[in-house]
Write a structure and sequence with these properties.
single chain, alpha/beta, Rossmann fold, 7-stranded parallel beta sheet, D-isomer_2-hydroxyacid_DH
């Protein structure tokens, strides 16, 4: 079979390892502002920071057959527009354990006020005889998980070592996982909010889950509760969260993702009861290598078989959170 040397398009240059891997397949074209994509473009590579909306998809040439996304999430891509054009979409679902690790780091930091205590120490206040802020215990508490996919399950497994009670809410009940993980099901999100001491978000972002936690739902959380988000920032109405954190309900939060990345909603960074991280759920050397290899594997499989390994399908119409 004659080898295929496709033209691969990028909205911006990627780190060296990604670029070298892509160049092993063919020529790599990096877009400049206002530049028209070449007519022979076959593959478009994007990441979570690169919106691939209907307008961009319409501007891509008829030769394009694959949008290869770097990351497990694909809310940056208009799947309907891609499907209409007959363009396959792939992702790199290899971030589960690293993201679950980070969710637990945020959980411990938010509960034990680690960020505030570190600032306290760096400011020299311990030496002056002050006491650092009190946190709250983690072991024995009730952990609520929104979305019991691979990352939600990994977070639940880690909770077993802390003797926590586990609850979840998802569009469909998962009895086999309930037994395996020792986790109970809440039929509504409102039930989960009212019963959880700590709430961790692990559901995808779509039209049904945008602002899943709005002002009304945040008000249902327990006094003293803690909110963790390593999913997508727009799952939460961030302005409503700023207001809620100011009033102590929830009492604390740990966030790795934000509604308007890379910008933060006004007032969020000034809060002492929130731990903020710059979207580093997959930011380990090992995970980034796995993502690069999975991206290349998807492209290789697409060129050899006409379909990527990790093809993203259109979600069922009308599926709730």
């Amino acid at each position: 079979m004659k080898p295929i040397h496709p033209l691969i398009g990028l909205p911006r240059a990627l780190p060296g390892g990604f670029m070298q891997g892509l160049q092993s397949f063919g020529e790599v074209w990096v877009a400049e502002p206002g530049q028209v994509p070449p007519a022979s473009l076959r593959i478009w590579v994007s990441s979570a920071l690169d919106p691939v909306n209907a307008e961009l998809i319409d501007s891509l040439p008829a030769s394009l057959r694959l949008i290869a996304n770097i990351g497990v999430g694909y809310d940056n891509i208009d799947l309907q527009a891609a499907h209409k054009r007959g363009i396959a979409v792939s992702n790199t679902p290899v971030v589960t354990e690293d993201t679950a690790d980070l969710a637990w780091a945020l959980l411990l930091s938010a509960c034990r006020r680690l960020s505030a205590s570190e600032r306290f120490l760096r400011e020299g206040r311990w030496a002056e005889g002050d006491s650092p802020p009190l946190g709250q215990r983690v072991h024995g508490r009730t952990l609520g998980i929104v979305g019991l996919g691979s990352i939600g399950q990994a977070v639940a497994r880690r909770a077993s070592g802390f003797g926590m009670r586990l609850m979840y809410h998802a569009p469909r009940r998962k009895p086999a996982l309930e037994q395996a993980l020792g986790i109970s099901y809440c039929s509504t999100l409102e039930q989960l909010l009212e019963r959880s001491d700590i709430l961790s978000l692990h559901c995808p972002l779509n039209q049904h889950t945008r602002h899943l936690l709005n002002a009304e739902r945040l008000a249902l959380m327990k006094p003293g509760s803690v909110l963790i988000n390593t999913g997508r920032g727009a799952l939460i109405d961030e302005q409503a969260l700023v207001d809620a954190l100011r009033h102590g309900r929830p009492a604390a939060a740990g966030l790795d993702v934000f509604e308007h990345e890379p910008q933060l909603t006004a007032g969020l960074a000034a809060l002492a009861n929130v731990t903020l991280l710059p979207h580093i759920g997959s930011a380990t050397g090992e995970c980034r290598q796995d993502m690069a290899l999975r991206l290349l594997a998807n492209i290789r499989h697409f060129l050899a078989n006409g379909a990527p390994l990790d093809r993203v399908s259109l979600p069922p119409a009308g599926e709730p959170a």
